């Protein structure tokens, strides 16, 4: 059959590409489905163009180029510009420009990567407010955040991406008016205790140091202990208002970037009912997998930051391991060969995990960031406010799914991708408990919109033999 | 629980197990009569019928074989305007609702004729029937902003049908219940045990005792009623539906199987499957529903499907509601219906009297467990 | 164009022609190159919205692309001759 293969990989980022290359080098037939028009994912976006390369440091650029070269060289079926909206064991449903199609495979590796933790605040729906990652994508698309480079840009939040974006903005001569830090200092000190392990990963640390040096040199006004951030403006952001030490401050801004760390993208696996675990420091759910990325569902693997956020180079290793284990599971290589092929990668991954354990604390989200004012829109799709959620939670509804039914929070097209995290935090706070105790939004397939006719056609027509 | 307990005075006068639309309607009605009621509810994955509902108030073209049940539905529909007015006033919650009739679209002449025959027979059995068949032209006048597919030959029409926002109705019942002094506990009921003439309801949060217990837990009644009933003839009837993205609001009169919600999204679905408690979505199944819907309303084809889900209806074996005491336990009540929305107004009005001992209204008097061969006191 | 080596494409956004690098998304072109700010008006609360995440999560970048409404434009790459319209009006109930 035309659309039958050994392994279908969802996502063409570092993990997906690495999984494809390693599975292919074990002799498997592989297909990669990706939303972007060229391989690379978020980290190596557009890496085959000068623009995409320009903002990467040397190490990342080399790693990315090598990965993409290997991917292009291997005989891998590649479906770019393709949106996946359904995954079942052995079957992936997706749409490209020509319509919907079904792909069949013995195993599936899901590698959707990570996303920025969605943290609502008043005014966050105003044009001009974007995530730090979103800002970086604009820069890497050859664009700018504001019309004029002298227009003030404000950074706010806590997390590794802010460092990276700040460097890129400085490189582009952007006027950074302030950096409003919302980090949790007690946890940062706790993170310091783990930092001694970071010698295991010297390359990564020197990258961090270089960024820090550049930022200090850039003389950005750095404000710590910031609370209650809000974006103000009429039809777009004009000012950022915040509290520090009980006092209200205000600063002009043409663009506000908010970043509160990175969390795994779990939508696909949650729609399939895979087992997840709660990280109480990073306050996120992550899928339970073995070292190779095998999930609780037979034949379904997870690779990359969607498993647990360790960063791009770790994603390449995780992808590689998943590809090897799929080859073992299908029976193309023996257990012994799989162990031989994976030994070095497993060691490297363990090293990185230990070395980066301090990051878990260093960039832990401050629990206060979800203590947003009542008028804050939490669910962007359905315009549901924190007040709506708190009211229903106080009527005795303890499960987020009950709150969702009565507020519509999470019922829109994004299916809770944006509001699921804050919904759980706000409901938990209203019940004086933690988010892991208030349930998890039920995610349904199709997990991305698909036209009704495409959906119906793909499941009712006989597969075309071409 | 720190309250001191005496054997003769139970903590709760009436406990209702199950806070779906049925349980909440009865809880509200009892609280409005001044009873001391505790409602407990925590839906499990297979007990979400009230939460996976379109919200049709639907009387037409059904129950030819059960004329009393058909009459009971019509009677409830007529009580609805008063109920929603009262509920909105007490709860302060706005309940979107239309009492403008309902439509069953027919594809081709064959469907039209079959439907006409059924409705004629139903009209004869019921003496009076507030509806009938309408031509395609009349259908287009009723819903002028929908371009029906070319196969649509006409429709069945009934002026007493309607559509309500089911989650608003459910919430209004619960909030009004609380405002009238009722107690709501979100917890799972494990088991009911007869105790000292009353009942002990074992829950996740500990045991609760009461004088009267009302089982309104849908499919969970099968296990909760086990202390009195070896077998409850109620089955899971799976429906799988598709949800289409928000569109301008054009359907104030609902079309069965492809209804626009008050928010503008469209719910497609009409399947009935008896497959145990399976709640999986089978894309091949829902796709057939989607194809039917685009034959009725072709514009939907280009619209985006935003999710599919399934729900388990609570279906008594003979499709008729069960309102009954349990055999040997005149103060334990069992309520089971698959039309909890349509019947909500009748439930809120009449079932509280039944639970405090006044019996059922004549039209519903035959709906006890007696019809399944159980000996139960009215 | 800052980078001479980068190939470009030309598309139309709200009747205005614009040339941008290949391989970028429609949302990035409208936000980062044209600086049009608002890309759609929210169907529920009618407030102006714009792409927030640019990576397929937030569904705030919905625009009309080549006649198709509500396209998640951060997941669509720019193409020569593409016609994009911002969704600045909410379709009213009839």
Automatic annotation (TrEMBL), chain A:
Keywords: Oxidoreductase
Example GO molecular function: oxidoreductase activity
Domain of life: Bacteria
InterPro entries to which the protein is assigned, alphabetical: BFD-like_2Fe2S-bd_dom_sf, FAD/NAD-bd_sf, FAD/NAD-binding_dom, Metab_Enz_Cyan_OpOx_G3PDH, Opine_Oxase_asu/HCN_bsu, SoxA_A3
KW S-adenosyl-L-methionine (keyword) present: no
Residue span(s) of domain SoxA A3: 378-453
Positions of the FAD/NAD(P)-binding domain: 6-313
Protein name listed in UniProt: NADPH-dependent 2,4-dienoyl-CoA reductase, sulfur reductase
Organism this protein belongs to: Desulforhopalus singaporensis
TrEMBL record, chain B:
Pfam families linked to this entry: DAO
One Gene Ontology term, aspect cellular component: cytoplasm
Annotated signal peptide: none
Top-level division of the source organism's lineage: Bacteria
Keyword line: Membrane, Oxidoreductase, Transmembrane, Transmembrane helix
One function term, GO molecular function aspect: oxidoreductase activity
Name recorded for this polypeptide: Glycine/D-amino acid oxidase
Organism (species): Desulforhopalus singaporensis
Organism taxonomic ancestry: Bacteria, Pseudomonadati, Thermodesulfobacteriota, Desulfobulbia, Desulfobulbales
TrEMBL record, chain C:
Bilayer-spanning residue ranges: none
SUPFAM superfamilies (UniProt xref): 2Fe-2S ferredoxin-like
Annotated keywords: Oxidoreductase
A matching Pfam family: Fer2_4
Gene3D superfamilies to which the protein is assigned, alphabetical: 2Fe-2S iron-sulphur cluster binding domain, sarcosine oxidase, alpha subunit, N-terminal domain
InterPro entries assigned to the protein according to its UniProt record, in alphabetical order: 2Fe-2S-bd_N, 2Fe-2S_ferredoxin-like_sf
Superkingdom to which the source organism belongs: Bacteria
GO terms, molecular function: iron-sulfur cluster binding; oxidoreductase activity
Name of the protein this chain belongs to: 2Fe-2S iron-sulfur cluster binding domain-containing protein
Taxonomic source organism: Desulforhopalus singaporensis
